[in-house]
Give the backbone structure.
Amino acid sequence: MPDKTALITGVTGQDGSYLAELLLEKGYRVHGVVRRASVFTTQRIEHLYRDPHSGDVRLRLHYGDLLDAICLRRLLNEVRPTEIYNLAAQSHVRTSFDEPIHTAEVVAIGTLNLLEAARDYRDETGINVRFYQASSSEMYGKVIETPQTERTPFYPRSPYACAKVHAFWQTVNYREAYDLFACNGILFNHESPRRGETFVTRKVTRAAARIRFGLQDALYLGNLDARRDWGYAGDFVEAMWRMLQQRRPDDYVIATGQTHSVRELLDEAFGIVGLDWSKHVRIDPQYFRPTEVDLLLGDASKARSQLGWTPAVAFKQLVRMMMDADLNLARQERTLFDAGYREGNIRTAPVEQIALPRRSSAEALTAVT
């Protein structure tokens, strides 16, 4: 049986790194798309890196951008994937209010560019490529019903969510109009130690750990009453893969079926280190959204029955996992601070990578073709 080949946009993000791990474990050849930048952004996947000169390398990176349609077509023809996972996005909801045009271009038009490239690639090569689109629970916004299912109407409340709705329906349209095997995964909030530090879950666990080690005094947040269905990103990428292994394409809600408030998150995280969060948390109006989303709670019954998928990591386990990782990072940061390294940002890698040898910039360049 020929090797399966996957192309992942957003491979350097939280989800992309977990998905790359999963697919490599399953024997795939994985090609990741990264945007050109003046600094390296591959920390989350450095543990997967192999020197391309060393032999049978199964992970390769390519420069590209969802807004460059010609580049996307060239990449598909070069890589010849059997599966495409579109995870790239400007994914910070609050930031989308400050950058609505950029968000719409990347999330909506970028997805359309990739869908069109995938359709032409299939028609020209005869390879029946399968396409996964990362949709979001934020599309439900001002929820019409609780819990939310695949049949719940969308009511987006941010530029990010509006762009995701556009991408969702374009994916459905390419499935129905052109018979493209295209699936939407409507993923509810999913977190991990690899989550970016500006997202509320990681912001909380990082601050709790740093306050415990005397590295900061206060944590600034917005709406503490917002409730979310938080799961583990490592579980959720398994659902992405399962969608593309089905006989027919479809759309699926991926969620834990439990909801928790930001206050509960604070209770759990600060409780692990024996701190009273109310003594450290400050409310900053800049973190409130112009239009809030008060409650998101998903019903993943369809994924459970058709994909055989269930989440393995519960909320308390997730927070403990993130706190353990951030406590380890804060402990190392404290050691450096006490040794006199007090200027600038002394963190050089994500917590999961600190114990690993880091390759040089020259070596890293050889990973990008």
Q: What stands out?
A: The two ends are 26 Å apart (CA to CA). Residues 50 and 75 are 21 Å apart (CA to CA). The first strand starts at residue 5 and ends at 9.
